[in-house]
């Protein structure tokens, strides 16, 4: 298994319409056996509860296989949603992808 | 009855009806095409090209079968009902066309009256047009007066024949008689607009926008008259009760049977009573309400996302703690998927609006529709068992404020004499106070009570835990006049935005300067934008509703807002 973490990038709005596509992408990646995944949200300017549910499902799945799922580069609106909903307590969040990559467990 | 298909017109042998039914919106009305032996009648051609094309295709086919004049009869002259008749080439050049509207509507069309036609609030152009037949042009009983129009060799007789209703009211009516004796009755039904008419053919009554006359954003438009509407509803109820009418066909929406129509009209009588004193729905109101909708929906979106997201979070943590029952209860407190869909729907609409594809009135009405649906999903008392009261109160207030505004009223402010320093002090101390008592979980009497106490603790997300508050109250300042709850809601919004922007220190102060009392909130800047444009507009409006004025006095290094309130002055 390659030690390099997979970086998944999403963009725009993550809401009721687009969350299913994000879910498909993440779970395809997990299905391929990736146990180190960084979700780069630098280009995501809006996240609804549908997006949060998808990320939570991914986190649960990753934990069940002993993997490591990190988030990076949260923009102000998304960071606000994470802080205000308590989701920032659940995820490991980094300012940049590079910082998320460093120290990721092998 | 099926849209786009011909069917018989009950009560008038030889006549048939083609309904063009659209989804309900204010872009264009339904259209109804009636084929008589001696004429073709189009009731409300609508306002969009594909609809016009469809109607014209049928008209041309009918005229090829047997040439007849075309009478375009308008239930009223709002542009969504008649624009195609004014400027769509196929309609303008229709051979043998006669355009008919109630007299006041006819004058409005001929004079390019943008207000009477609501072309102003629909932000549409209007071309002048000649109206061939001015219907119901008197307001006195003139039974028996006839006019005869000759349309391409076929006479059309118009007879004034008012009806005396059960209570003695006079219902103005004209009977249009075609060459072979077929009759079309038109009744004057002002209220929604002064020129509104209902048209009866056989056992079918075409009612225009009568059933929308008390709707939010519709009641109060130019020409709307609450008293006339009341009289009209009474007369129509009486007419329907006399029998002989089976179906009512509205300007928007599906066909209705008589009993449903009666039920709706009776409900409207009660609604109309509540509409005394509503604001005029004019372009200024529309623009103002559209701006309100944009800023409000931004905050509604934020708060609903927080609530939905927090419930997802709490449910997850409870599951991890093997409290499955309580976790499931969290999931059911609000339909988060439906909330998401509604917010996404509004966002899509808003994007179209900002791209210049929709007028302000559309956005205002759409926000009203979405906020009404969100209100139905929002079960305050259930959510209060888990989430902090401030969140619940803020959303309730937003939805109520918009609901009130779209109905043509102003949101209420409860302005009271308030000690500003105490009000601000309460906000500061509440930031570190959880909405539960430490003993609750210890004193829980059973498993259910324990699970609820646990959920409440998990659900408390304190965005201010990394923020140090400094409060400098001015000493001995006069009392202020303000709506204290609205002020609190505004201040909390600003503080939340500062906290999530990562500030570590916030200073709040009160002062007495320049004949006003001020609340100052400031913090060292950690990022360029604390309140984006929508949030700023919302905060400013919210402050105004609390009785004050909002002023952003920030610079590059310090974020600083000041909320200013009038002093309470004792009489004498």
Word description of this protein:
The complex is a heterodimer of chains A (106) and B (572). In chain A, strand 2, helix 2 (49-64) and strand 3 (68-72) form a beta-alpha-beta unit. Chain A has four helices and four strands; from the N terminus they run E-H-E-H-E-H-E-H. Chain A is globular. Helix content of chain A is 42%, strand content 27%. Chain A has one domain (6-101): STAS domain (Transcription Regulator spoIIAA, 2-Layer Sandwich). Chain A is an alpha/beta fold. Chain B folds into three domains: 7-281, Ribonuclease Z/Hydroxyacylglutathione hydrolase-like (Metallo-beta-lactamase, Chain A), CATH 3.60.15; 282-412 and 437-458; 413-431 and 467-572, Heat Shock Protein 90 (2-Layer Sandwich). In chain B, a hairpin with a 5-residue loop joins strand 12 and strand 13 (183-188). In chain B, the strands form five sheets. Chain B has an eight-stranded mixed β-sheet with strand order 8-9-12-13-14-15-16-17. A seven-stranded mixed β-sheet of chain B has the order 1-2-3-4-5-6-7. A five-stranded mixed β-sheet of chain B has the order 19-21-22-24-23. Chain B contains 17 helices and 24 strands. The model of chain B has no long low-confidence stretch (mean pLDDT 92). Chain B starts with 6 loop residues before the first strand and ends in a 6-residue tail after the last strand. Chain B has 572 residues and is an alpha+beta fold. Chain B is elongated and about 90 Å long.
């Amino acid at each position: 298994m390659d030690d390099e973490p997979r970086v998944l990038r999403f963009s725009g709005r993550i809401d009721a319409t687009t969350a299913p596509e994000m879910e498909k992408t993440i779970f395809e990646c997990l299905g391929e056996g990736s146990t180190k995944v960084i979700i780069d949200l630098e280009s995501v300017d809006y996240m609804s509860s549908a997006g949060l549910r998808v990320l939570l499902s991914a986190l649960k799945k990753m934990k069940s296989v002993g993997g490591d799922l990190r988030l990076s580069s949260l923009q102000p609106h998304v960071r606000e949603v994470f802080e205000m909903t308590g989701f920032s307590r659940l995820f490991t969040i980094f300012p940049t992808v590079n910082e998320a990559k460093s120290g990721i467990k092998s | 009855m099926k849209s786009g298909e011909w069917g018989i017109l009950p009560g008038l042998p030889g006549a048939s009806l083609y309904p063009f039914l659209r989804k309900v919106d204010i872009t264009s009305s339904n259209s109804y095409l009636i084929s008589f032996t001696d004429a073709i009648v189009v009731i409300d051609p609508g306002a969009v090209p594909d609809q016009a094309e469809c109607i014209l295709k049928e008209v041309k086919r009918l005229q090829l079968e047997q040439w007849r004049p075309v009478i375009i009869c308008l239930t009223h002259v709002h542009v969504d009902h008649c624009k195609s008749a004014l400027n769509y080439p196929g309609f303008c050049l229709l051979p043998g066309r006669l355009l008919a509207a109630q007299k006041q509507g006819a004058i409005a069309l001929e004079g390019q009256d943008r207000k009477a036609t609501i072309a102003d609030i629909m932000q549409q152009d209007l071309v002048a047009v000649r109206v061939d037949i001015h219907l119901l042009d008197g307001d006195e009983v003139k039974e028996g007066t006839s006019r005869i129009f000759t349309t391409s060799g076929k006479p059309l007789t118009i007879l004034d024949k008012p009806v005396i209703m059960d209570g003695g009211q006079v219902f103005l009516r004209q009977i249009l008689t075609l060459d072979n004796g077929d009759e079309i009755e038109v009744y004057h039904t002002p209220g929604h607009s002064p020129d509104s008419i209902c048209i009866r053919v056989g056992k079918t009554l075409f009612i225009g926008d009568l059933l929308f006359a008390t709707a939010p954003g519709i009641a109060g438009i130019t020409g709307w008259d609450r008293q006339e509407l009341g009289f009209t509803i009474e007369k129509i109820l009486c007419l329907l009760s006399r029998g002989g009418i089976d179906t009512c066909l509205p300007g928007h929406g599906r066909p209705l049977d008589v009993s449903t129509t009666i039920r709706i009209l009776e409900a409207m009588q009660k609604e109309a009573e509540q509409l005394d004193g509503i604001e005029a729905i004019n372009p200024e109101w529309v623009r103002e309400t559209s701006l309100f909708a944009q800023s409000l929906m931004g905050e509604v979106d934020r708060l609903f996302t927080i609530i939905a997201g927090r419930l997802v979070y709490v449910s997850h943590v409870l599951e991890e703690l093997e409290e499955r029952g309580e976790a499931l209860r969290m999931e059911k407190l609000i339909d988060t998927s439906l909330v998401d869909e509604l917010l996404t729907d509004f966002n899509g609409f808003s994007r179209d609006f900002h791209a210049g594809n929709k007028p302000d009135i559309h956005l205002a009405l759409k926000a009203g529709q979405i906020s009404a649906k969100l209100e139905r999903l929002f079960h305050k008392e259930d959510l209060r068992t888990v989430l902090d009261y401030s969140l619940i109160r803020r959303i309730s207030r937003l939805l109520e404020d918009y609901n009130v505004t779209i109905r043509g009223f102003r949101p209420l402010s409860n302005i009271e004499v308030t000690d500003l320093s105490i009000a601000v002090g309460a906000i500061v101390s509440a930031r570190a106070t959880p909405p539960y008592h430490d003993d609750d979980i210890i004193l829980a009497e059973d498993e259910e009570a324990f699970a609820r106490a646990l959920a409440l603790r998990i659900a408390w997300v304190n965005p201010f835990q990394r923020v140090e508050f400094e409060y400098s109250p001015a000493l001995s300042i006069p009392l202020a006049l303000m709506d204290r709850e609205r002020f609190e809601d505004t201040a909390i919004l600003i503080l939340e935005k500062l906290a999530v922007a990562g500030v570590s220190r916030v200073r709040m102060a009160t002062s007495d300067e320049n004949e006003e009392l001020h609340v100052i909130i400031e913090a060292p800047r950690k990022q360029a934008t604390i309140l984006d444009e929508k949030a700023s507009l919302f905060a400013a409006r919210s402050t105004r509703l609390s009785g004050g004025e909002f002023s952003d006095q920030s610079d590059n290094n310090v974020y600083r807002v000041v909320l200013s309130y009038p002093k309470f002055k004792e009489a004498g």
